[in-house]
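Now produce a polypeptide, keeping tokens residue-aligned:
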Amino acid sequence: MQILVIEDDRLVADLMRQVLMDEGYAVDIAPVAEDGRRMAMANTYDAIVLDLELPDRNGLAVLQDLRREGRTTPIVVATAHDTAADVVRALDAGADDYLQKPFANEVLAARVRAAIRRGGARSMEKVQVGDLTLHRVNHDVHCQGKPVTLTARQYALLEFLAMRAGETVTRPILLEHVWHLQFDPGSNVVDVHVAQLRKRLRESGSVVDIRTVRGEGYALDVG
């Protein structure tokens, strides 16, 4: 699942990124309101975490813009503003939840999970590819109704390929979105994890396979 964090404080943004990545999410950061609005309009996010105090524009205006444009993405406002009036304004503008800074890491993760369950990502909570069912909130995988045990990294790799089933995904793209690396470190980390995941799928009896596209990357075949 993909989360957008609109937050200008770099330390806070990096902390939120790490907390959400530890939960298995891919995270984009927008340091200013206009970047956040543009990214939210151009991409399909499962949830947005939005600060209200941004250097170029109030976050409440971004929230109102997105709702006015018909965006139903769950939005969790995370801000130091703590008055009842602030909470009411944000919720009335279309926020799904309101989180006051400072907050515990596990609270942020729980609020994002809850917002996704309640919000516009509901239709994508469950993804079917071949005989595999991926539950994207809990990160569970079932093959013909039977659970398939995967590590967090194996699940992230499978979900990324499943959302692009049939397409060839290059190693640099997998490194960026699954390992959050911006370059190929020259290791075989992708190949090793693909081999391990392929083995787990075969052990589960699934007809889904990961095909190697020579010189390019990998593609998920649904059988």
The CA atoms of residues 11 and 171 lie 30 Å apart. Helices lie at 10-22, 33-42, 59-68, 84-93, 105-118, 152-162, 171-178, 189-204. The longest helix spans residues 189-204. The first strand starts at residue 2 and ends at 6.
